Task: inverse folding
């Protein structure tokens, strides 16, 4: 077992937590220098890599609202989210710039270079003849890493998948440090993630669960390995190479792992694993049994909804559901309003277990039942990585492909 160093790894790069937070503070300072005010939305159109984490933390640290966007979205879909969220600034990878600029957004764009690891993971990527208004590293070099002016950290703006029309943005009230600490502890418990653990995050950070996993994992002194892109073989290689103790997956990943030839599966030492949690939808019993036969009784399941945190957790040992009791009373958040600046509705609209404000239309209350096949439901959450509050955000999309609306 190797010693755990708190921080974030992606492919062949690693930054300690202190380095990540120093860069996040530079992002926060730069966001403020660009005239972004507390409460303004900032879109994050980035694939999985360390910069995604730093930028999301920095946006929230500046008191702005991170809007983590599914980068698979086409021009029309992406344009809708940028307009509806009123994004005042956009961070985008170089190869994703053509789609961002084609939306006609008037917001300034910070260009984040597409790393070699991402190019290896995704193969040929879109060329970008156009450039952003700022290049990330040059922009950061002009900032200091002092704490930004005091502001209330914002929770991320979360969008639903849009399978019932256009996506609905879900705003959460800012959390106090006490509420943030309580929520963080409960989410870590739901994920089965202990402090000082080496943990693997293979899913895209535009989903709620992996985004919360990374941000809260940082607060708990975890060494986080972030996969640029999931592959079954790559997952097993990462577990073996980094002595991974904990991982979060979705059921389709478990299916793909089981589809590997038995010789390939057994060639990797995964004995370091102590807990694997699946979310994003129901997992077929036969898949669970096959994984437990392979890894032992270390498989956990959890689910939730955009208006709440995870509602229940099942373990391989007990086979029972353990209520997490996440609702407005436990987080201290208030039930919402119709429209971003619309009137507040009293508790009970949506349900009392919600803590939301809907960007468009009425939002149904939280259900403790797993979402239906093909749908992921996320949650915006808040963390405190440096003693001050930091915020995580994610969007919720259909894992089988981008929505079509």
Result:
């Amino acid at each position: 077992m190797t010693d755990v160093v708190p921080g974030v790894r992606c492919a062949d790069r690693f930054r300690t937590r202190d380095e990540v937070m120093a860069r996040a503070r530079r992002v926060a300072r730069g966001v403020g220098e660009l005239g972004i005010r507390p409460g303004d939305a900032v879109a994050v159109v980035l694939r999985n890599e360390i910069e995604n984490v730093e930028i999301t933390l920095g946006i929230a640290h500046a008191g702005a609202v991170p809007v983590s966007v599914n980068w698979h979205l086409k021009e029309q879909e992406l344009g809708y989210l940028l307009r509806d969220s009123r994004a005042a600034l956009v961070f985008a990878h170089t190869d994703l710039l053509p789609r961002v600029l084609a939306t006609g957004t008037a917001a300034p764009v910070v260009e984040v270079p597409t790393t070699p690891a991402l190019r290896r993971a995704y193969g040929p990527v879109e060329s970008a003849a156009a450039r952003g208004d700022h290049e990330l590293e040059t922009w950061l070099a002009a900032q200091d890493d002092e704490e930004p002016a005091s502001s209330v950290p914002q929770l991320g703006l979360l969008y639903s998948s849009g399978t019932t029309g256009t996506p609905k943005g879900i705003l959460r009230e800012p959390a106090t440090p006490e509420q943030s600490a309580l929520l963080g502890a409960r989410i870590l418990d739901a994920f089965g993630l202990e402090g000082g653990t080496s943990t693997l995050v293979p899913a895209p950070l535009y989903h709620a669960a992996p985004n919360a996993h990374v941000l809260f994992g940082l607060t708990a002194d975890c060494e986080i390995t972030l996969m640029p892109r999931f592959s079954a073989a790559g997952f097993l290689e990462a577990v073996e190479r980094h002595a991974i103790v904990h991982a979060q997956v979705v059921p389709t990943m478990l299916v793909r792992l089981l589809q590997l030839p038995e010789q390939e599966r057994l060639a990797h030492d995964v004995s370091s694993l102590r807990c694997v949690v699946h979310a994003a939808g129901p997992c077929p019993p036969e898949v669970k049994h096959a994984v437990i036969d392979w890894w032992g009784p270390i498989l956990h399941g959890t689910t939730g909804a955009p208006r709440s945190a995870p509602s229940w957790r099942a373990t391989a040992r007990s086979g029972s559901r353990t209520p997490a009791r996440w609702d407005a009373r436990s987080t201290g958040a208030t039930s919402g309003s119709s429209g971003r600046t619309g009137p507040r509705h009293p508790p009970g609209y949506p349900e009392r277990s919600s803590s939301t404000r809907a960007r468009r239309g009425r939002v149904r209350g939280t259900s403790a039942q797993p979402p239906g096949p093909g749908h992921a439901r996320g949650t915006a959450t808040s963390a405190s990585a440096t003693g001050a509050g930091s915020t995580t955000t994610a969007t919720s999309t259909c894992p089988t492909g981008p929505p079509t609306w």
Observations:
- The chain is about 30% helix and 20% strand.
- Residues 318-405 have pLDDT under 50 and may be disordered.
- The longest helix spans residues 17-33.
- The longest strand covers residues 87-93.
